[in-house]
Amino acid sequence: MKRYLFLLMTILPLLGYAQEEGGVCYQQSDSLTICRLLDEAHSLPRTTNFPLFFARKFLGIPYVAHTLEVNDDERLVVNTRQLDCTTLVETVTALTLCAYRHLFTWRDYLNALTAMRYRNGRIEDYTSRIHYFTEWITLNMEAGIVREIQAPNPPFSAVQHVKVNYMSQHPKSYKALREHPDYVAAIREMEQQVTGGRFRYIPKQMVRNQALLRQAVNDGDIIAITCKKAGLDIAHLGFAVWKDGNLHLLNASMLHKKVVEEPMTLYQYLQQHSTHTGIRIIRILK
Asked: CA 275 to CA 91: how far, in whole Å?
């Protein structure tokens, strides 16, 4: 508790919506939540499954899309009050990274979030943010933050051939691209760099085989659901949760309108979506 009070004193000058050192957008409750969770993690044993520990702290938080699109210029947005599937994964991953590396301050969290959300950890403009999850995986692997699991085969018996162009083909669907059409060329260049990647994944029907999945998927792994929608690579994100021998998804759910541990199994969940083709597995590195 003393440590928590100390952390509160260090962030009191930063409370409310704020810009600081390059621009950070948040509310008082966000900084209090992050500091409280880091303080709780500080006292937990090193054997704790930190991804699930943190992810479960957000159960019940409302699902809200586009929470990063709130500023005219690009700033680091911290919003623990409203989450979509990507911001849930990024929030939990940044907290987990701090816990693994024994970093327990607000500034440590901001640094971790910036490093994984922005190309080369630098906030310049909208195009410097990582928009496709395939690129997010690749760059965060290079940074030593995560590792993609692609073996054994089975269950990793399929290969995804990435071809992304959705953003440049649908610029009117994105606030920043509508307001800054000059960004589209940079987005298109990024898409061309991401396109062509080949990654092994677990196909949809193979997710039925729980015994095989147990060899490849751990509690707290990030699950990236692959899709066949033109121009996209990943349809949805969440965290792996094993219950009674079956794999489930902890996610910020548009259907449930909040963060939930899906009551149906992941296999059942995938069958509900005709465009979903399977899952890629990403593990946060200790």
From this structure: 27
